[in-house]
Amino acid sequence: MAGTSHAAVLGAGVIGASWAALFLASGRSVTVYDPATDVEEMVQDYIETAWPAMTELGLTSRGVPDNLSFAASAADAVAGAGFVQENVPERLQVKHVIFSEIEPVLEKGTVVASSASGLTLGQMQEGWCDPSPLVLGHPFNPPHLIPLVEIMGNERTGDGVLAAADAFYSDLGKTTIRLHKEVPGHVANRLQAAVWREAIHLAASGVASVGDIDKAMSAGPGLRWAAMGPTTLFGLGAGAGGLAAFCDHFTDTFHGWWEDLGKPQLDDDTRRILVEGLSEATNGQSLKQLARERDAMIVAMQKALLGTRKG
Predict the structure, then answer these.
(1) Are the C-beta atoms of residues 165 and 135 closer than 8 Å to each other?
(2) What is the pLDDT of residue 284?
């Protein structure tokens, strides 16, 4: 699967376009399907914008950005593809329609991976007669820059299909984790949902501004978490005693914090606090400006982390 030379992308919003850019960078040809009338212009613009950042990360040495084609249907798009990344809207009926269209024409051995963030693999498998080619392949946005892909198969997944997907993503330079149990939101989204819930609670309670809460994350734990996960880092936090000593020392502290965590809702008042707070924190910057700033910082961090790990 790592040697697959042609891939298909179904659904070309920001996730699908980002996947297309990364697949092209890896030296593969890519066919895209999306019913939007401006899909070709949108995807080509996205790839043109993404290419310099991928080049800076050393991801484009095998590929060219114009090895790209567009299909008039999902069935046409998957013709000849060894790997299919599905990114259509997060509505089960829409996904089932796409799966029923492509299943009869898939070549033997083709892997279909869904980028679904909220739907489970079991729910999506119901749209197939034989769901053996389907796996979960959930990225983090934007996929051409963020390494994480959460992958999952189950008892209805074909033998070797999950391993083939893992090999394909690894060849792209991705970092994969395997889910062993279905839960809504998978792993990473649940982690960030938990953090954001408390960030909202702190803002709505007047503890700190939206901007300062974001700074507390980006200038504090966020920097550490870019290097290692929270459990590993806490294991380093008690010296030679490791995680066991950390738990002994901080059990009561964490129990107290957990009991005091908030449970906010995204009601009108809370939304207003967040929207107004973000507007103040970003000082009128446009979404495009913020996205460029985000991508530049992600590239810089990735380069630093890659250099450290290679060293």
Answers:
(1) yes
(2) 83
Q: Read off the pLDDT band of 123 (50, 70, 90).
A: very high
CA angle 293, 296, 302 (to 5 degrees): 140
Q: Which long-range contacts (CB under 8 A, 24 or more apart) does 204-208 make?
A: 204/262, 204/264, 204/269, 204/270, 204/273, 205/262
CB 85 within 8 A of CB 11: no
Burial (CB count within 10 angstroms: exposed 0-12, middle 13-18, buried 19+), residue 211: middle
For residue 254, what are the contacts with CB-CB under 8 A and spacing of at least 6? none
Q: Are 124 and 92 in contact (CB under 8 A)?
A: yes
Helix axes 14-25, 39-56, angle to 10 degrees: 50
Q: What are phi and psi of 69, to 5 degrees?
A: -140, 165
- Tokens, residue 306: 């890659």
Q: Is the pLDDT of residue 310 over 70?
A: no
Q: Which amino acid would we find at residue 160?
A: G
What is the SS3 string spanning the chain? CCCCCEEEEECCCHHHHHHHHHHHHCCCEEEEECCCCCHHHHHHHHHHHHHHHHHHCCCCCCCCCCCEEECCCHHHHHCCCCEEEECCCCCHHHHHHHHHHHHHHCCCCCEEEECCCCCCHHHHHCCCCCCCCEEEEEECCCCCCCCEEEEECCCCCCCCHHHHHHHHHHHCCCEEEECCCCCCCCCHHHHHHHHHHHHHHHHHCCCCCHHHHHHHHHCCHHHHHHHCCHHHHHHCCCHHHHHHHHHHHHHHHHHHHHHHCCCCCCCHHHHHHHHHHHHHHHCCCCHHHHHHHHHHHHHHHHHHHHHHHHC
pTM: 0.92
Record the tokens describing residue 302, joined without a space: 């990735």
